Amino acid sequence: EAVEPRISRASRASLGAWGKLLVHASAAAARNNRAQEAREMLEFAALGFEYEGDRGTAARIRAALTKAGVL
């Protein structure tokens, strides 16, 4: 839980921070030609934002992944 929050017990703020960190980490993975890892991080980020209550951000992440043809 120190690195990845347990979704069932984490606070909304923790989930939002976790999602934001995953978005940044996915950008680094993409720059290093690790597309699969970047996609997985973005999928988890969308999940974190959704559980946080930020469905708009989650929807934008999923729309971008769909547009890119990876979802």
Can you walk through the features of this model?
The chain has three helices and no strands. The protein has helices at residues 12-31, 35-52, 55-67. The longest helix has 20 residues, at 12-31. It is globular. The N and C termini lie far apart (27 Å). The model has no long low-confidence stretch (mean pLDDT 85).
Q: Which structural class best describes the helix and strand composition?
A: mainly alpha
Mean pLDDT: 85
N-to-C series of helices and strands: HHH
Strand content: under 5%
The number of distinct helices, counting runs of at least 4 residues, comes to: 3
Question: How would a textbook summarize the main sheet?
Answer: none
User: What does the overall shape look like?
Assistant: globular
Low-pLDDT stretches are none
Instruction: Please estimate the helix content.
Output: over 70%
Radius of gyration, taken over Cα atoms and rounded to an integer in Å: 12 Å
N-to-C terminal Cα separation, in Å?
A: 27 Å
DSSP, total strands: 0
